[in-house]
Amino acid sequence: MPANKYALIRYHVIDRMIRNPYRRFPSLEEMVDECSEVLGKPVSRSSIEKDLYAMKNDGGLNYSAPIRFDKHHGGYYYEDEGYSINKIPLSEDEIDAVQFAANLLNQFTEVPILKKYDAAVSKIMSQLNVARYKDLPVDRIIQFESHPTIGGNEFLSDLIYAIGHSLHIEFTYRSFAIGAQEKRRVASPYLLKEYKSRWYLIAQEEKQYMYKIFGLERISELQVKEEKFTPKKDFSPDAYFKYSIGITADQSAEPQKVVFECNEILSKYLTSQPIHSSQRIKSGKDKTLVELKVIITYELIEMLLGFGEDVKVLQPVSLRNDLIDKLNRTLQQYHGE
Predict the structure, then answer these.
(1) How far is it, in rounded angstroms, from Cα 194 to Cα 266?
(2) DSSP assignment string, 68-134
(3) In the prediction, which pLDDT does 88 show?
(4) How far apart are alpha carbons 193 and 199 in whole angstroms?
(5) How far apart are the first and last CA of the chain?
(6) What is the pLDDT at residue 2?
(7) What pLDDT is attached to residue 177?
(8) pLDDT value at position 337?
């Protein structure tokens, strides 16, 4: 029977207490107190008794823990002194899952907050003692998309701390806009979002109502201040990006119905991986229509242009005309050579 997350935490607390060489033979009461303290809420005696039974007998857990009770000391111990639930061998599927996660994590080794997990994953992998593919490099089996390191990732740890503790931040920001100057800003951070291997910060600047999006690679001299702020209850990440494709979220823009034709091959790709939660596909005899309810953003335009001759935008007319204008100017660049 699968265990809930609180039971799993209790199992590990019990395992740690039984293996503690400096305080052997923990009693049932001591386990109750320790689990209550770790979970931050009362744990009953009967729960610990059930946990001990499950660790010994639950086939779903597959611990088969050799737990015994010592009447002389009034506490519990492992009959096998080297036993630990952390040493349980994983199944082939579980090993594959860990290897997959380890290789995914390797794509972010330059991110300071994730570096500490590199050693942890290596330690896990060494304990797995996987010999199935020892003569075949992992990158011969599976390869992940990789990108050159982008600046700003070094601020992730501080920003996560500031968001988690509702602390103001101060930083220098340089916009990509032509003629824009570096500016010192004070803001309340709300969310970190990753898009196309770049990290963005959603924050509310001091004395401003609207939320803004800042690219981390354009941030410098970040400082987490001691002053706390009260997070606004109206901010919801899902609601903020509900009608967005990409990272742009214009709060003042109304979502529009976007309709475009596409060929059969592209429609299959879009069916297998929708570009937005509002996507609806209507297949006809001669053509396929795709409908979206989104705000018109740079990322949407970039995507539609990227589809090239495989799509034809029908509405809104303003978007259609904008795309025609951009395509004409693109052609002029080549015809002018």
Answers:
(1) 26
(2) EEETTTTEEEESSTT--GGGPPPPHHHHHHHHHHHHHHGGGTTSHHHHHHHHHHHHHHHHHT--TTT
(3) 62
(4) 6
(5) 71
(6) 44
(7) 78
(8) 60
pLDDT in the model for residue 130: 44
Positions in the chain whose pLDDT score sits under 70: 1-4, 88-150, 336-337
Domain 153-240 fold is: SH3 type barrels. (2.30.30)
CATH number of 5-87: 1.10.10
- What length is written for the chain? 337
Q: Indicate left, alpha or beta for 13 from its phi (over 0: left) and psi (-120 to 50: alpha).
A: alpha
DSSP state of 148: -
Under CATH, which number does the domain 256-335 receive?
3.30.70
47 phi and psi, to 5 degrees? -65, -45
> Look-up: residue for tokens 């737990």?
67
Cα atoms in the 13 Å half-sphere on the side-chain side of 63: 25
Give the model confidence (pLDDT) of 212-230 as tens digits. 999 999 999 999 999 999 9
Distance CA 295, CA 318 (A): 12
CA 67 to chain centre: 38
**Cβ–Cβ contacts within 10 Å for residue 260, how many?**
21
Residue 47's pLDDT is 94
Residue with tokens 């990753």: 194
Q: Alpha-carbon distance 115 to 106, whole Å?
A: 9
Given this model, what pLDDT does residue 327 score? 94
State the DSSP string of 38-77: HHTS---HHHHHHHHHHHHH-TTTT----EEEETTTTEEE
Over residues 63-91, the pLDDT tens digits come to 899 999 999 999 999 999 889 887 766 55
